[in-house]
Amino acid sequence: MTDIEVLISTTDETVPTPAYSHPGDAGADLTTREAVTIAPGERATVRTGVCIALPAGYVALVHPRSGLAARHGVTIVNAPGTVDAGYRGEIRVTLLNTDARESVAFAVGDRIAQLVIQRVEFARFVPVSSLPGSHRGESGFGSTGTA
């Protein structure tokens, strides 16, 4: 396992540095910097107070927290969110309350997402007149069978 250095700044000195809850965890916790209540079926974009500078060739992916999904039906609208290496602004997370009946409230400092850092492979797109065949062929979304 190789550690990479990710530079971090925060919007104020009370913002915690993202941290891994347990040894071997893939995602570091992000917390909210604002209190917010999300009604059933609603979404809210919340501030984390965290800004990062990734090395070239890396991406930070913002993933939902499984506990929030299981207990409250909270997920991230564009999961995983992508933080490109060149982005230097504050990481914000768009949360969605999928519960049909209950609102969910977050206080400042509550864990709302996980930040996963990964290497990126860069593709060289090569135009061709036709693609080689495959087992699946041109079958589209949902074509691999029924549940």
From TrEMBL:
<comment type="function">
    <text>This enzyme is involved in nucleotide metabolism: it produces dUMP, the immediate precursor of thymidine nucleotides and it decreases the intracellular concentration of dUTP so that uracil cannot be incorporated into DNA.</text>
</comment>
<feature type="binding site">
    <location>
        <position position="78"/>
    </location>
    <ligand>
        <name>substrate</name>
    </ligand>
</feature>
<dbReference type="InterPro" id="IPR008181">
    <property type="entry name" value="dUTPase"/>
</dbReference>
<comment type="similarity">
    <text>Belongs to the dUTPase family.</text>
</comment>
<dbReference type="GO" id="GO:0000287">
    <property type="term" value="F:magnesium ion binding"/>
</dbReference>
<keyword id="KW-0378">Hydrolase</keyword>
<keyword id="KW-0546">Nucleotide metabolism</keyword>
<dbReference type="GO" id="GO:0046081">
    <property type="term" value="P:dUTP catabolic process"/>
</dbReference>
<feature type="binding site">
    <location>
        <begin position="65"/>
        <end position="67"/>
    </location>
    <ligand>
        <name>substrate</name>
    </ligand>
</feature>
<dbReference type="GO" id="GO:0006226">
    <property type="term" value="P:dUMP biosynthetic process"/>
</dbReference>
<feature type="domain" description="dUTPase-like">
    <location>
        <begin position="15"/>
        <end position="145"/>
    </location>
</feature>
<protein>
    <recommendedName>
        <fullName>Deoxyuridine 5'-triphosphate nucleotidohydrolase</fullName>
        <ecNumber>3.6.1.23</ecNumber>
    </recommendedName>
</protein>
<dbReference type="InterPro" id="IPR033704">
    <property type="entry name" value="dUTPase_trimeric"/>
</dbReference>
<keyword id="KW-0479">Metal-binding</keyword>
<comment type="pathway">
    <text>Pyrimidine metabolism; dUMP biosynthesis; dUMP from dCTP (dUTP route): step 2/2.</text>
</comment>
<keyword id="KW-0460">Magnesium</keyword>
<dbReference type="InterPro" id="IPR029054">
    <property type="entry name" value="dUTPase-like"/>
</dbReference>
<feature type="binding site">
    <location>
        <begin position="82"/>
        <end position="84"/>
    </location>
    <ligand>
        <name>substrate</name>
    </ligand>
</feature>
<dbReference type="GO" id="GO:0004170">
    <property type="term" value="F:dUTP diphosphatase activity"/>
</dbReference>
<dbReference type="Pfam" id="PF00692">
    <property type="entry name" value="dUTPase"/>
</dbReference>
<dbReference type="InterPro" id="IPR036157">
    <property type="entry name" value="dUTPase-like_sf"/>
</dbReference>
